[in-house]
Specification:
About 70% of the residues lie in helices and about 5% in strands. Strand 1 (about 110) and strand 2 form a beta hairpin. It has helices at about 10-60, 70-100, 115-140, 160-180; strands at about 110, 115. Among the domains are: about 15-60, no CATH class; about 70-140. It has a two-stranded antiparallel ribbon. With about 180 residues, the chain is mainly α.
Length: about 180
């Protein structure tokens, strides 16, 4: 087996230099390929930057932003509004209930309990229930729902398992009804 050595360099250093030359060759080839792909885009960027800055300076730069273009955005906003309304109703109901509990001079329903106190305690119960529901909704971890949801959607998950199992269910029903 012939051994290749660089003149005046020990063998282990020669192998390192050969590996360095091969690695440098590969790096240059990758850089050339990347340069061919990226160069046209980089060349066009100053022109685009000039166009954007001219439009900004001239007051012609506009943007088109649609807040509710995605179904997920609509669902998030609807959930936040729902929780805010429930919290507001719960706080208002709690405030009115406290006022009813502090009021005097209503007719007695039972011994020691007036009508306003009865409504006040019922309102406090409903208020606490609503506020706890809002707190639990906020603290509950969200799981993304696959498929469509909402009115008109099926109550079962839209998976291929249902579609695959459906023919066997129909077959089973047919055999059950034919045996009757």
């Amino acid at each position: 087996m012939a051994e290749t050595r660089l003149a005046g360099v020990p063998q282990h250093q020669g192998a390192r230099r050969r590996a360095g030359v091969v690695a440098r060759d590969r790096l240059e080839r990758v850089q050339d390929g990347a340069h061919r792909v990226v160069a046209p885009r980089v060349h066009a960027e100053p022109r685009r930057a000039d166009q954007i800055s001219a439009a900004l300076a001239g007051g012609r730069l506009t943007t088109n932003l649609r807040l509710f273009s995605d179904r997920h955005d609509v669902q998030v906003v609807a959930t936040l509004v729902n929780q805010a309304v429930l919290a507001l109703i719960g706080v208002a109901l709690g405030g009115m209930s406290v006022i009813m509990l502090l009021a005097h001079g209503s007719p007695a329903v039972a011994r020691g309990i007036s009508l306003l106190q009865l409504f006040g305690y019922a309102g406090l119960f409903l208020s606490v229930t609503l506020l706890l529901r809002v707190v639990l909704e906020v603290l509950r971890p969200r799981q993304p729902s696959p498929g469509r949801t909402g009115p008109g959607s099926p109550p079962w998950p839209a998976t291929d398992g249902w579609r695959q199992a459906w023919p066997s269910v129909i077959k089973g029903l047919r055999t059950a009804f034919t045996r009757m």
